[in-house]
Amino acid sequence: MGIAASELCRYVIKPTLVYLGRHCASAEALLLGVAASQSALGSALHDRRGHGLYRIGESRHQALWDEFLAHDPELASLIRGLASQHAFLRGPHLELAVNLRYSTAIAWMLIEQRALPLPAADDLLGHARIWRQIFHPQGRLRDFTHAWHTCIEPVMAPES
After folding, report:
1. 53-57: Cβ within 8 A, 24+ apart
2. Residue 154 has pLDDT above 70, yes or no
3. For 9-48, how does the pLDDT look when each residue is reduced to its tens digit (9 = 90+)?
4. N or C: which end of the chain has fewer CB within 10 A?
5. How far is 125 from 68, CA to CA, in rounded Å?
6. Are residues 134 and 114 in contact, defined by beta-carbon separation less than 8 angstroms?
């Protein structure tokens, strides 16, 4: 069993997006859907596709730092601030599995790097298309929607 969707959103995704200055309802929904699709909200934190909630591979993680974040030192410093001080230096890819806010920031940067327009927060197929394009090119849109309906929809309580 993974992390409760409502808690993942409330305590990890939303605060991370706010910290990065990128918060919006659509970004929250997209990251939640990606986590559901990639790892069933963290029910397993490693497989052949990558590490953590978002299944980010080591080469993609490294390339993001080298090709995107290296060109924006202020943003890179902000994201580096989420990583563990010593553990990051010894095993930066391990942070993707053990540090939820760091892995969420990296997942968001993979999305931001592509500069794709975000669909509306309730556009499940729009989010599925972004997921497939960025995180799982061999994935099917119905895989994303199934993960949403299975992992997220039943446990998300409406905000009051």
Report:
1. 53/3, 53/8, 53/100, 53/103, 53/104, 53/107, 54/96, 54/103, 54/104, 54/106, 54/107, 54/110, 54/135, 55/135, 55/136, 56/96, 56/103, 56/106, 56/107, 56/110
2. yes
3. 999 999 999 999 999 999 999 999 999 999 999 887 777 7
4. C
5. 27
6. yes
Q: Where are the domains of the chain?
A: 5-152
Give the span between the Cα atoms of 67 and 55, in whole angstroms.
19
Structure tokens at 64: 């993001």
Please tell me the distance from the alpha carbon of residue 134 to that of residue 9, in angstroms, as a whole number. Answer: 20
As a whole number, mean pLDDT of residues 83-112 equals: 87
User: Residue 77: CB partners within 8 Å, gap ≥ 6?
Assistant: none
Q: Quick one: tokens of 160?
A: 């009051």
pLDDT of residue 93: 87
